[in-house]
Amino acid sequence: MINPASIQADNGAGLTRGIIGLVNKGQPRKPDDWGSLRSWAWGAAESKYGPGNAGQLPVDSHSLIAMCAPRLTFISYGIPEQGDVNWLDQKGSYMATVAAGAVFKLLGVKDIGVSNDCRTEVMPPHNTSMLDGELAWRQHDGGHTDAPNMKYFIEWANKKINYKPVTQERR
């Protein structure tokens, strides 16, 4: 088990700390320098599997998502145009979600409702909800935050767990 925040915080304020801050001697990174995701991959390679590179890790993104199956799994992303152009890999995340869907289907639950060929599936426009399955995907039009998707997540989760709010009549 690895705590990525112990390697590098997942926010701009942490970029003068963690491994990036250490390498940059406390100075902020340039936009084209490595970010949190790369630092986490480096940390995992250095701490779990010895010197190497992220390509030597035994699992990748779609494998990690697939390991959640058949549990409820909501993948949320923003758009780079909202200030995170150097942080987000929404296309890679979508491809991983598509590929992981095969395991959700194998275990008898619904995925996002597309084929599981990540090489041919086209990522939908942002603000498209793919929330019918136990695996869900939604890219909102905000930046590097889950907040704009929270209302969609709550509705999706309530529906999936059959949650009914307590009303005055039910008391």
Strand-helix topology:
Blueprint lengths: L17 H6 L12 H13 L12 H6 L6 E5 L12 H17 L22 E2 L4 E5 L10 H11 L11
What report would you give on this structure?
The chain is mainly alpha-helical. The chain folds into two domains: 8-56, no CATH class; 61-160, no CATH class. 31% of the residues lie in helices and 7% in strands. It has helices at 18-23, 36-48, 61-66, 90-106, 150-160; strands at residues 73-77, 129-130, 135-139. It has a three-stranded mixed beta sheet with strand order 1-3-2, covered by helices on one side. A hairpin with a 4-residue loop joins β2 (129-130) and β3. The longest helix has 17 residues, at 90-106. It is globular.
Secondary-structure element string: HHHEHEEH
- Number of H/I helices: 5
Q: What's the overall geometry? A: globular
Question: Helicity level, as a percent range?
Answer: 25-40%
Mean pLDDT reading: 84
* First-to-last CA distance: 44 Å
Radius of gyration, CA atoms, in whole angstroms: 18 Å
Unreliable spans are: none
Instruction: Determine the structural class based on helices, strands and strand pairing.
Output: mainly alpha
User: How many domains, in number, for the residues?
Assistant: 2
- Which strand order spans the largest sheet, edge to edge or round the barrel? 1-3-2
Percent strand: 5-15%
Biggest pleated sheet: 3 strands, mixed
| Total number of beta strands | 3
Sum up the structure in keywords.
single chain, 171 residues, mainly alpha, 2 domains, 5 helices, 31% helix
